[in-house]
Amino acid sequence: NAGVTQTPKFRVLKTGQSMTLLCAQDMNHEYMYWYRQDPGMGLRLIHYSVGEGTTAKGEVPDGYNVSRLKKQNFLLGLESAAPSQTSVYFCASSYTAWNTIYFGEGSWLTVV
Amino acid sequence: EDQVTQSPEALRLQEGESSSLNCSYTVSGLRGLFWYRQDPGKGPEFLFTLYSAGEEKEKERLKATLTKKESFLHITAPKPEDSATYLCAVTLSGGYNKLIFGAGTRLAVHP
User: Fold this and answer.
1) For chain A, which end, N or C, has fewer CB atoms within 10 Å of the first or last residue's CB respectively?
2) Does the beta carbon of A38 lie under 8 angstroms from any beta carbon of chain B?
3) Each residue of B25-48: pLDDT tens digit?
4) What's the pLDDT at B59?
5) Is residue A61 less than 8 Å (CB to CB) from chain B?
6) What residues of A are in contact with residue B49 (Cβ under 8 Å)?
7) Do A45 and A103 contact (CB within 8 A), yes or no?
8) Which residues of A touch B8 (CB under 8 A)?
């Protein structure tokens, strides 16, 4: 019963490097989301997808790109990492636009 | 601007000391209000969804209530294992299923 799985769990990047965070869900959910969580600011939506092949911007999309080539996977990319992107990233999914959103365990990213 | 505010930021309780956490919201149109629990180093874990004023949901020592402007998470006779950060979030009517989160309340229950 995996739910939402994120990889990697921890990563340290140098400024300017690129990387991809992978999210996989096994609940056949249509909607998938990427959030970041920073101290004192709550969770903020980066990008989301309403189905395979679709993506859309959330509240804080700058510096990130996403892709949803398969229904079960949602990738978050950082093309040129900046220290301001040091954060905890959470992937989430929901069956429809009105169902409960379920979260993964998080990916800790440090950009030095 | 749509906003969710949680208070207090942190709360320390003795085991068995009941209390309430507050979530106030200012949004254009509420579709639903969610409560999540988050343990250190973990993702948010779903607790409750409330959709209309007057609605209540219970789970073990937790009870969530909703009014037109705020929600309360009541914790009755808490135990140390209830220690966590409790997050409140709202979804808006119309548009996609966007969750707007509050900053959370850090709860510590001491034996």
Assistant:
1) N
2) no
3) 998 888 899 999 999 999 999 999
4) 94
5) no
6) 100
7) no
8) none
